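Please check this.
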Amino acid sequence: MGITRRKDGRAMQTFRIDGLSKPKTFYSSESTDKRAEKDILNQRIAFEKRLHHERHNFLSLAEKMLEEHEASVGYKSMESYTTALKHLKPFYDMDLEEITPEAVQGLLDDLGRKKYSYSSVYKVRTVFGMVLAYGLFHGLQVTDYRRTLKVPRTAKKGKRISPDDFIIDTIVENATIVEFGMWPMMLLCTGYRRGELDAVQKKAIDFENDTIHFLHSVEFINNQPHLKDTGKSTNSELDVPILSILKPLLYDMVKDMSPDDFIFGGEKPLTVTQIRKRMTKYTRAIGHNFTNHQLRHAYAKLLYKAGVDVKTAQRLLRHADIQTTMNIYTEFDEEVTAQAISTIDTYMETRFRA
């Protein structure tokens, strides 16, 4: 469509632009049609460049993807995604279609050589995959090569060392004897994360069906707990079974509480500082030191020793990705193998060199 004039004298011209469902109209205040046509052409070129940038540029796509995820994930998750995105800076000014799997793998390998942790490199790979998936969903012509990207073996793997059996026995024995003893007991028997346990209210505990319903979780922002609702009255996929050894202790603990009481904090959840101080006092009292997350790992180890299959363990540990559960089980396999080799080695030494 050619140049036309509005009643106010401004020139206007309408075009069909790739990527837009409706025609786009541009306006110019130039007095002559020739100048107006040149002005509108420049506007159109600038607009198409901006549109292309928004639809194809890696950083632009990443920011939109994170914006969409912000409402559905926790503060800590968003923080980890943002941190991981910073490692993808070499791709910021590139179109997603220009980024090759070799380039992404090269960046992951470089992070591994720099001794970044396995978890950090894994998150970088995850965030890149999320951007790639976002681009594919919005119609970009790019190959889905997420599965080909590997976390390099050079990435530093941290050991999730769980407390030994003696410490676990001490936790069970002191659950109701030492102040705050039910906190580590609950972590050990449920596999809860710190923020999940802090959010448990009496009304979530179903003694009839031996289940703790997953109603909320807590995310900590600047020490303060913020309750995050699941949006459902119950979420059975995330419910936690109450073990027989825990049930009578938990019943006695909560029997006089109001339904809305948080079982450890009362009217509101505990802050990070409150949890830390109480745990420090508790570990000093029993003479053993360990973290909240080590007890979650101990729960995973109990599942492994009990012969619980990986898929069921994934549900009980509430892992979004089964690969996380498999990685933990693999560590336990390696631990058992190492113990077996040590046992047979000692036996052979004793038998034939005695």
Summary: The longest strand covers residues 216-221. The chain has three domains: 4-53, 58-148, 165-323.
